[in-house]
């Protein structure tokens, strides 16, 4: 059990008609919230962090990816369900290479408005390096629009072309392909319209597991359809942070000046706000795991 290759999880999901969930964490509470839900439901799971956020040049303090790798790998090894550890969506190669050294067993490179040649070149290098470390590479072809939280406006994107995707996978040797089929990143409230026909065609032409990003903005009823049509992994991020933040706000809304600070953070009891946020996030993750039909698959991997 515990630390397993991401390809093993995606292949099992594909063969057994469910999707493995990737739920993006940003600290220890959020990481454990994901594992809590997976253990409660006996679901295989992919945990991890955003390469772009960890490596954000505007951070007030730079982060060390080795901390994240060590934490994630140890949490995976100690889990009661099979877990893979993904360094997701980094737009800078060095952090991905260091991520592999730090213990991540899956990596993904993205670059806004990148040319096809650039994506081929970077992914060929990444596949060589990652496979040497027994890690997997996920790539994305086509570009997801991103919703702007403040205005609700969406950036332009481009759908994944099935023939180009088949060629790209052959040319690079990537282990999984994220597809743009109408799904949107960071979409809260509204729901994206998935192009099921395009997904069908992609599944027919592309030989590796397909990944759906932008899980927050997908209508719950659409998950069963996309899984039936061949999506083997779904990424979820934004809604988890929203639930975490809303819970903290609610917990800290009342005057807490007379509450023991150790009860508010650290002791993990009824007044602990971080524990409340972790539990709320875990319930949200569990809801997705049921929609992804990954419940009780852990012991079959
Ligand atoms: P959302 O934040 O829209 O759920 O998307 C997450 C994601 O795709 C991370 O790769």
Topology:
Blueprint lengths: L5 H10 L4 E6 L2 H14 L3 E6 H4 L10 H14 L4 E8 L2 H10 L3 E4 L6 H17 L3 E6 L20 H11 L3 E4 L16 H10 L4 E3 L7 H9 L2 E6 L1 H15 L8 H4 L8 H19 L10
Parallel strand pairs: 1-2, 1-8, 2-3, 3-4, 4-5, 5-6, 6-7, 7-8
Helix pairs in contact: 2-4, 2-12, 4-5, 5-6, 7-8, 10-12
The structure holds 1,3-dihydroxyacetonephosphate.
Q: Can you give a write-up of this model?
A:
The protein has 301 residues and is of the alpha/beta class. The chain has one domain: Aldolase class I (TIM Barrel). The protein has helices at 6-15, 28-41, 51-54, 65-78, 93-102, 116-132, 162-172, 196-205, 220-228, 238-252, 261-264, 273-291, and strands spanning 20-25, 45-50, 83-90, 106-109, 136-141, 176-179, 210-212, 231-236. Strands 1-2-3-4-5-6-7-8 form an eight-stranded parallel barrel, surrounded by ten helices. Helix 2 packs parallel to helix 4 and helix 10 (238-252) packs antiparallel against helix 12 (273-291). The radius of gyration is 19 Å and the shape is globular. The mean pLDDT is 96. The protein binds 1,3-dihydroxyacetonephosphate. 1,3-dihydroxyacetonephosphate is lined by residues 24, 88-89, 185-187, 213-217, 235-238.
What structural category characterises the helix and strand content? alpha/beta
Q: In the CATH hierarchy, what is the class?
A: Alpha Beta
Counted beta strands:
8
Beta content:
5-15%
Which cofactors or ions or other ligands sit in this model? 1,3-dihydroxyacetonephosphate
CATH superfamily: Aldolase class I
Biggest sheet features: 8 strands, parallel, barrel
Helix percentage range: 40-55%
CATH architecture: Alpha-Beta Barrel
Overall average pLDDT = 96
* Tally of individual domains: 1
Low-confidence stretches: none
Cα-to-Cα separation, first versus last residue:
9 Å
Shape assignment: globular
Major sheet: arrangement of strands: 1-2-3-4-5-6-7-8
Within the CATH hierarchy, at the fold level, what is the topology?
TIM Barrel
Total DSSP helices: 12
- Secondary-structure element pattern, one letter each: HEHEHHEHEHEHEHEHEHHH
Radius of gyration: 19 Å
